[in-house]
Amino acid sequence: MISITIASKHKDDCRTINTLLAGQNDFKIVSTGADGFHAVRSSMTLKPDIIIMDYDMEDVNGTDIMPIIKRNSPSTDLIALCPDKDCGAVDKALKAGIAGFLLWKKDIDKLVPAIRSVFYGGFYISELAKKQLLAKLGHINITNPLQRHFLTITELNIFNGIILGREDKEIADDLNMSYGALRNCVNKVKKKTGLQNRTQIAVYTLLSGMIDLAKIKEKFLDAVS
Fold this sequence. Notes:
Elements: E1 2-7, H1 11-22, E2 27-33, H2 36-45, E3 50-54, H3 62-72, E4 77-83, H4 90-96, E5 100-104, H5 111-119, E6 124-125, H6 127-137, H7 153-163, H8 168-174, H9 179-193, H10 198-208, H11 213-224
Parallel strand pairs: 1-2, 1-3, 3-4, 4-5, 5-6
């Protein structure tokens, strides 16, 4: 059974989500609220598998709330819903560790598969949000992803650290390498791939399937347990 908390500032949206999920036998809605505080309280007391939340709430946004939720309940994942007219936050959301990102109302029919994908260790960003994100970041050709053999084991481990949101010094310590060696390696990868910054690296590797997100989650849970 997948336990779910819903947090939306719009009562009609809460009702829409409840109705959409009610017909799924493996879903259990454990709480519904109208603000980010409700999502945080739910992560502290109910520890749901999934929190579905408006990206921009009256009291907090998804980027700021994500680390709070993970501190309270490391196994809880967040799916963010963003207004169709404004998904400029999707890159920030992904970098913060949000596991799913959909646009209101264009992607609401994708919510059920998004929940299952995230619950079973995956990652979900709708095609519409993906296109808008790539348009913002510049040309990143995810239809022809890099082959794994183009990257060394060290480079892939650096990508893992970037996706987990770790700072360069932390990644260097984890890999038993100097900070200078790490920076040289990152610069080499940027030239090799054409990616320009940490956000593009994180987005590209997740969307292309280059990194196994389920394994990264296991490492994260082991680190915080």
